[in-house]
TrEMBL record:
<feature type="transmembrane region" description="Helical">
    <location>
        <begin position="194"/>
        <end position="214"/>
    </location>
</feature>
<keyword id="KW-0472">Membrane</keyword>
<keyword id="KW-0812">Transmembrane</keyword>
<keyword id="KW-1133">Transmembrane helix</keyword>
<feature type="transmembrane region" description="Helical">
    <location>
        <begin position="161"/>
        <end position="182"/>
    </location>
</feature>
<feature type="transmembrane region" description="Helical">
    <location>
        <begin position="103"/>
        <end position="125"/>
    </location>
</feature>
<dbReference type="Pfam" id="PF12730">
    <property type="entry name" value="ABC2_membrane_4"/>
</dbReference>
<protein>
    <recommendedName>
        <fullName>ABC transporter permease</fullName>
    </recommendedName>
</protein>
<feature type="transmembrane region" description="Helical">
    <location>
        <begin position="57"/>
        <end position="82"/>
    </location>
</feature>
<feature type="transmembrane region" description="Helical">
    <location>
        <begin position="245"/>
        <end position="267"/>
    </location>
</feature>
């Protein structure tokens, strides 16, 4: 199993696209920093939305997480599964292994490992650019916290935020890998995955129209059945001074992971479907 994972990991880095995606991180972070600088002109430093060096890793990630990071997961998954199937290289691998499930699990580990590296590099670049472009006060306000946080407290908060962000990427990677496994072309894989993400953006806002009928509490629970919505607002709520819906959102992430791992196991139970 270790040999399969190591081989898949090496194959990933022999491609240009994973390197290219990493190379654009500084550009993405710089663009986010310029946007935050513009926002600061309309805000006061006593607001948690006001960007300083300490909270820029969070504010610079919040929008990118539910868009760019999910798209990166889609591209890498399609690259290591659908593209290999289309090119025929997956057939060659399947002829040399006994268990197709091992190969699928190895590819899943490679996918989430790449996302971990991507998230880590993004975190480090955010701190570097944040220190260069924003002020560095000793304390600053934090979302859903009454008292300002110190630099060290803020750093620990940022680590927790990125850890939960990684959990959301683990969950959504299960979904995306399933879609890429059942797709026979890159276009289909990307189209289905992007369509799924668009639905996850749309239905939480649509159901809010019925909050007066079903009740606000039930609507909030349904709202956070969407992984992108957890990425957008849910993480800050889970890390609030008094955590809100922490258990519910963790349950949703675990449920997505288990459900789509089982579906993936079901559709890949016979390796000759890819030969």
């Amino acid at each position: 199993m270790k040999t399969i994972i190591a081989t898949e990991w090496q194959k990933l880095w022999k491609r240009k696209i994973p390197w290219l995606l990493l190379a654009v991180i500084p550009v993405m972070v710089y663009a986010a920093a310029k946007f935050c600088q513009q926002q600061n002109r309309a805000l006061t430093p006593d607001l948690p939305q006001y960007t300083v060096a300490g909270n820029f890793p969070i504010l610079g990630l919040s929008e990118m997480l539910m868009t760019v990071f999910n798209l990166v997961a889609t591209i890498i998954a399609a690259l290591i599964v659908t593209e290999e199937y289309r090119s025929g290289s997956l057939r060659m691998v399947l002829m040399r292994i006994k268990s197709f499930q091992q190969l699928v699990f190895a590819k899943y580990l490679v996918l989430i490992s790449y996302l971990f590296v991507y998230l880590l590099v993004y975190f480090l670049v955010c701190y570097g650019i944040g220190l260069a472009m924003f002020s560095c006060p000793d304390t600053y306000p934090q979302f859903y916290h009454q008292d300002p946080v110190t630099w060290s407290d803020g750093f620990l908060y940022n680590l927790k935020f990125y850890a939960l962000a990684f959990l959301t990427l683990i969950a959504i990677s299960s979904v995306i890998l399933f879609f890429t496994a059942i797709s026979q072309t890159m276009t289909t894989a990307l189209g289905v995955s992007v369509g799924y993400l668009l639905i996850c953006f749309a239905y939480p806002n649509f159901i809010q129209l019925f909050s007066s009928i079903a009740g606000n509490e039930k609507m909030i629970n349904i709202f956070f059945t969407s992984i992108p919505m957890i990425q957008w607002e849910g993480i800050t709520m889970m890390l609030a001074e008094t955590p809100y819906l922490l258990g519910w959102m963790l349950l949703i992430l675990i449920s997505y992971f288990i459900l789509f791992q089982l579906l993936l196991l079901f559709v890949t139970r016979k390796k000759d479907m890819f030969i």
